[in-house]
Design brief:
10 helices, extended, 378 residues, 8-stranded antiparallel β-barrel, alpha+beta, 18% strand, Lipocalin
Length: 378
Amino acid sequence: MILNKTEQNIGLIISFFATILLLIYLVFPFVEIGNPNQMAIAFGAIFILVVLLFILVVRKVRKNNEHILINYLNIGTQRYILGIFMVFYGLPKLLGTFFDYQLSSMDNKMMNVSDFELAWYFYGKKKWFEVFSGIMEFIPGLLLIPKRTYYKAALILLPVTSQVFILNLFYKIGGITFPAASILLACNLYIIYSQKNKILEFFKSLKFDLSIQLNNKTKLIIKILRIVGISLIVLVLFIKLKPAIFKSNYQEKYATLIGAYTLESMNKNGITYIPSDSSTYYKDLYIEKQERWNILRMYNNKTKAFVLNLKPENDSFQLYINNGGSGDEPDIIDSTTVLAGKYKLQNEYLLIEGIQQKDTLELKYKKLSSPAPKEWFW
């Protein structure tokens, strides 16, 4: 099909940036990363070269009124470049060498690792997942080259390129990978869009009329079941959305406490007290967004689930050990070790005054900050 001039111009813009991206990847191994002048000269030369190339080709083609050729060049350029990159990214995954997470991140708590380290560890944890990802990129990448299979390959690749774009968007992978993911997704979408009329015709041809003759009684039962089903959906939506839209005073108070805290200082019965390694006092508190996952760590390095009951009207609380564990297991509340008292938030500090097993405690917890996103370039 022949796309109109606006659609062709959009395609030319995508092809322009895709060509620049390909040339950058080809030149990249020969450029000294620590030399900004060399990088600027190389990338500037690539930009000027591609601009001149596109101006000359587009002017000549449009002067000869060969609109079909513009479509052909756009789709051809984009499917070859998309195919090359899918093979380039897919092959290391097939070999199990792409998601090589950093060993240094393994010694950190989850909250202390960067977005990149967390994402790479997750995707590289299961080798068969990495291999499957490689198959979904490598094989469609090859199939983009032949005319008879390129469109099917583009359809298969759409969820892949979309997922890569989303990963780079939200996990701050860094370097040139986000622009690359954006350009490759644009290529994928444009290739599919190039046959928009056939796609629309396909969806219009879909008919789901079963052509079954039903008696009045059956129709009534189906109608009632449909109403029940819709009602259940509305009810579930209401139950899930109500806490998010109409926040109670308890929810607002609890939200301010969410975070990880470590004990900085402690007074026991008015005297400074330094817990020993065998002490069962609470060293770290992990107050989660979902209360059922609340965990604390004692000085003997044992972890326990806990239940936090807040009283928003006077900022008092009760902290119970839950021997039933975190999550969806039945609660088994240990009332003998309850820590009850009042709390106050002061900047990054959580100050607690309470009583636990007849001892008066003054606790000063410091909130642990999240790490800054890690940036890198390759």
